[in-house]
Amino acid sequence: MTQCSPVHQGINARLSDLPNGVGSVMAFEAGGVICCLPLEEVERVLLLPATDPLPGSPPWVVGLLNLRSDSVPVVDLAMRMGILNDEPYSLDMTLMLCRHGSTVGGLLVERVLGVYEAAGLKAIDVSLPSKAYPLLHSVVRADSLSMYMIELEEA
User: Fold this and answer.
1) pTM for the full predicted model
2) Torsion sign (Cα): 136, 37, 6, 15
3) Mapped to the 3 state alphabet, what secondary structure does the chain carry?
4) pLDDT tens-digit profile, the chain (155 residues)
């Protein structure tokens, strides 16, 4: 798996301030791709608990997590981005429990890289075709690290 960078693919990019309302972000890796989410959308990070299968669901849906008597869907973010993984799921994998509005869901990721404060972040203005990259909202840069901002509504 390789890390993608719009800059090395020849896309002209320009740095700007983050969109209004975006504060600090949590950076993580999924399928070898560095991604991030606004910190206010991440409720907690935990190890993957046992999930119940969800028959007929898309292949990127790992299953349902029973959380305080609520059923929370768990999505394999790498697979949702089209990156296939042959490894079986294990209980030591990282799960990010996220909330967007009233919707709660779990994102299965490889590892969490940390929190980046808003003051050190810049948005990279690039045109990502929404049909080809439905999950990718924008590209964010912190020092020398480029991260894809994930759009939770599409996960």
Assistant:
1) 0.80
2) positive
3) CCCCCCCCCCCCCEEECCCCCCCCEEEEEECCEEEEEEHHHEEEEEECCCCECCCCCCCCEEEEEEECCEEEEEEEHHHHCCCCCCCCCCCCCEEEEEEECCEEEEEEECEEEEEECHHHEEEEECCCCCCCCCCEEEEEEECCEEEEEECHHHC
4) 333 333 334 344 444 445 545 678 999 999 999 999 999 999 999 999 999 999 999 999 999 999 888 899 999 999 998 888 888 888 889 999 999 888 899 999 999 999 998 888 888 766 665 555 567 777 888 888 889 888 887 66
Distance from C-alpha of 49 to C-alpha of 30, rounded to nearest angstrom: 18
Q: Name the residue with tokens 């490894």.
A: 87
| Structural domains of the chain, with CATH | 14-154 (2.40.50.180)
Nearest to 97 by CA among 80, 74, 63: 74
Q: How would you classify residue 92: left for phi > 0, otherwise alpha for psi between -120 and 50, otherwise beta?
A: alpha
